[in-house]
Batch of 2 targets.
Target 1
Amino acid sequence: MVTEFNDKTPIYLQIMDIIKMNIVTGKLKANDKLPSVREMATNLNVNPNTLQRSYQELERLKIVYTQRGTGTFVGEEKDMVDDLKREMAKEVIDSFILRMKNLGFNDNEIIKSVSKETMEVKSNG
Amino acid sequence: MDNILEAKEIRKSYLNKKALRGINLNIPLGKIVGLLGPNGSGKTTFLKIAAGILHQSKGEILIDGNIPGVHSKSIVSYLPDNEYLLKWMKVKDAVMYFKDFYSDFDEIKAKELLVFMNLDENDVVKSLSKGMKEKLKLTLVLSRKAKLYILDEPLGGVDPTAREKILNAIVSNFSKDSSMIITTHLVNDIERIFDDVAFISEGEIVLEGNAEELRTSRKKSIDELYREVFQ
């Protein structure tokens, strides 16, 4: 796995984002086993303690669960993937709106430019 | 939490020159600590004191609860930043040399690491490139089952692909019941493997903390912080 990290933000959050992304896009499905902490740490060249923290946080958020002695697995709760998708979409939208406002767009102008672009994507696609 | 290394007010002078001006540093069990600073900041002097090769002028240092000596040397695996391998040796001679010296040396692990590092047992030390020598030294040091690994500039003078290999070997051989202290000025390449970092400047620690917490509070990478501290 080749991953470019942005070292300005905590590494454990970035690893959580990678795993969340894999769940949302369906690369990881309910009850799929995640690589072991050591395996993943070696693949990413990251401190195993950092990986441990990512896994613990994901477990606390009920995105994954750990089975003693066998490993860590993707959670199977029905709404988990939809919730994750919604949460990640919100992050994208929030940062988009912030950047548009910094460019001087007001709410109406933002909505207008978005619908214009989505129409164009539709007609070109 | 247990500390494998505890240093209190360590001072070291060479005649008039003050190399260390009161270092306080703890290394907890199961952690990788980065000691970061430019050349001449006192990193190597501190590591030599921890390894039991130099003696401090003032202050106290405990390794696993004991002052450096026979016991500490048996549980500390030290990678110095100078050449110590004998030129006439073959790679396999160097392995046997370490095996004779240290009872915690794991020959099987050493052989595995040599393969991982693409080193040939029959190569002569003299013929190895700088990067290969560095890989061999690290192989020997990581093949001991030590409690504390002291790595002085493990990435010094090594090209980027060899750096990746070395980092990989460090991460995959790190275990929860040992600790590591690593010095470097190539912070960018290695910052993802540190739990804690301490910045050392002119013999003093000027900033220290948990790497992830520093990233959160300063909104900067450890590399950027380094550049800020030592600009």
Target 2
Amino acid sequence: MTIWWAVAVTCAACYVLKLAGLSAPRRILDHPGVQRFAALVPVALLAALIAVQSFAHGQALHVDWPRTAGLGAAVVALLLRAPFLVVLAVAAVVTAALRHLLG
Amino acid sequence: MGIAVGLAGLAFGAAAVTAGLTVAQACALSLFAFTGASQFALVGVVAGGGNLVAGTAGAILLGARNGLYGLRLAGLLGVRGWSRLPVAHGVIDETAAVALAQPDERSARTGFFVTFASLYLTWNATTLLGALGTSRVADPAVFGLDAVGPATFLAILWPRLTGGDPETRTLRLIAGGGAVIALAATPFTPPGVPVLLAAVAVLAVLLRRPR
């Protein structure tokens, strides 16, 4: 499966899901389990993505110290209530600076 | 919110090209998938050298919540028949949040379409800029751009995890559980699959506290 196929399938499926919601019978919404699952799934997936992108490379677990420090700096920025752009910039700058110093 | 989405668009364009997508692939995702979390998820798996089938499945699972927004917006927007086709494309986190926050149906409809139009333009323009800018950088890792993807997720997730109420504690439990499950599964499953398995954390919490 090439990247273009993954892009095309993701685009098509994401659109169909949006359309299905607009077109579905109302009673599905009334099921509390459906609502709750939909509200909670993104939290689990986002947390997993953060963990995997930070500490996994293929099937190996490894710690890239500059990147980990960059994310740590992002956490500090979030604790200080920094705006979105500042959080991202802090992560990139700290990672790049450490990589430059260590490499 | 427009500014935040614009910045996320830049980050997405940068992350996509850093992961190895072409500028055209990054722009196609923003034009036709138009749902940030799914786009970032697919790109994240590609970046990790992951299994594309699992990456696509993860992106689609994240896109499923737009279906639930659609359920809630259907009555509010009052769209039927063919008019649902273009409207459906705009059903995302931000438009749903704006529409559902309005006091009446008329302003909900206005809020939805204004948010949809402005975010669609912003998101696609900034994706292009971010992708083009990054594609001119020989090695994005030198500029720490590989940290931007996870930092974006962190910034999106953060507001939902801070606070002392029981619901927030549940969310922290799910986030922690999801991260641990994904890392524990990493050595044993193809890349992309660990992220999907993290959804088990939600099932565990739902079964523990039936509502």
